Amino acid sequence: MLASTGTGWSKSSDSAKKSSDSSHKATSESAEKRKSGTANDADDTDRKVTYDFDSESSEVEFVYHNNEKDTDLDESWTYVQFSSSQKKQDSALTQLNKTIKDNFERELQDAKEWDADSSSGPQCISHRESVTYIKDEYAVVRTERYLTTWGAHGDIEVTGTAYDLANGEDISMSRITGQTLTEMESAAREAIEQYLEKNPSDIYNNSQLDDAIDEIVDDDSRYYVTKDGLLISTKPMELGSFQYGGKDIVVSSIDGSKAQRGTDLHAKYSETK
């Protein structure tokens, strides 16, 4: 668990609640795509395929040294692995799981090898993945990273990734939402502006906010889908001071979700407390 490190944050180790959708299984007709000559495989293609997921974790210890003090930090990193109801595991899903795990382990190794004297960027000391949406063959993973140079404050980075579990491929978030990227960006701008109307920035004027919003909505990695709808993430210091915080703002409804556009659901989906 992230203890006080001088970064200004503490972390909750209970990432299970962030995968509250884990009880939801997805049903897919895409099994028809998988044909085989064996009787068992034929049974698989005749029934609807359901998808599920698990959260895997790795315990990590970070030690930071400077002239004044040593900081020890224990953290739990998590990644997701998908499964299907087929008797014979789909090769595409197996490869997707391998890719997710390989990318996770590569990032973890880079974090362990980070050195304050030789590294040009911040150190990632937390990486947590949660499945925020799964329906039919589609799934969305929210990844939250905590980055720090071990100064007064760190930075939180949230990204969303969408998958087609039937073929094991990354897909655009707009495919999940049924909107074009332009429509998503326009709705995201309106959502952020609606939020700011009720929660004015504590340090930025309208001109500064316009520039910040342009940069935020143009970054398609910030969008992710939940049962509450399509959300977009903002970082601390983008819409206000560090104390103003990062936001996870509802952009549009998905599957008849009731959350209102412009609502901040950061407290619900964030791994950082």
Descriptive notes:
By secondary structure, the chain is of the alpha+beta class. Helices cover 26% and strands 32% of the residues. The chain has six helices and ten strands; from the N terminus they run E-H-E-E-H-E-E-E-E-H-H-H-E-E-E-H. Strand 4 and strand 5 form a beta hairpin. The longest helix has 23 residues. The termini are close together.
Summarize the structure.
With 273 residues, this protein is of the alpha+beta class. The protein is 26% helix and 32% strand. The longest helix is centred in the middle third of the chain and has 23 residues, at 91-113.
Shape: flat
* Strands ordered across the widest β-sheet: 4-5-6-7
- Uncertain stretches of 5 or more adjacent residues: 1-40
Q: Count the helices. How many?
A: 6
Give the terminus-to-terminus CA distance. Answer: 11 Å
Question: How large is the share of residues in beta strands?
Answer: 25-35%
* Percent helix: 25-40%
Rg, Å, rounded: 20 Å
For the secondary structure, the number of strands is 10
The average pLDDT value, as a whole number, equals 85
Q: Helix/strand/pairing class, anyone? A: alpha+beta
Helix/strand order = EHEEHEEEEHHHEEEH
User: Major β-sheet, in short?
Assistant: 4 strands, antiparallel
